[in-house]
Design brief:
The chain is mainly beta. It has a single domain, classed as OB fold (Dihydrolipoamide Acetyltransferase, E2P) (Beta Barrel), CATH 2.40.50. It is 7% helix and 55% strand. It has a five-stranded mixed β-barrel. β2 and β3 form a beta hairpin.
Amino acid sequence: MINQVSILGNLATAPRQEVLPSGTVKVSFLLAYNSYYTDRSGQQQEKAEFFWVETFGRSAVNAGKFLVQGQQVAVAGQLSGGNIRLENGSYRNCTAIRAEQIEYLSKPQSRTADPDVEPAVANVEF
């Protein structure tokens, strides 16, 4: 069975780094991308999709140093199920990706460059 996924999106949350009891570094973040479709009335619609991403070891150390909220990244890894805890204390099912490879793409634009553009904000607590 093949379990491989590649996603291009933007960090919806700042990366969260932690050291596991084993000493392994883990970094987690929420990745968002927009999907587009045409509804029954023929109108173009946009929907945000979210993936919970976790990476470990050397990849996690680099992600913790270089990733910032809003940055565009390409993630390749394996899919798994997962839950995220929302700020209100409830949990929500979320597709999770165990990232094996992260490609750092564009950094988020300065807020002064375009004041009408707001960064994506997810209502998530790690």
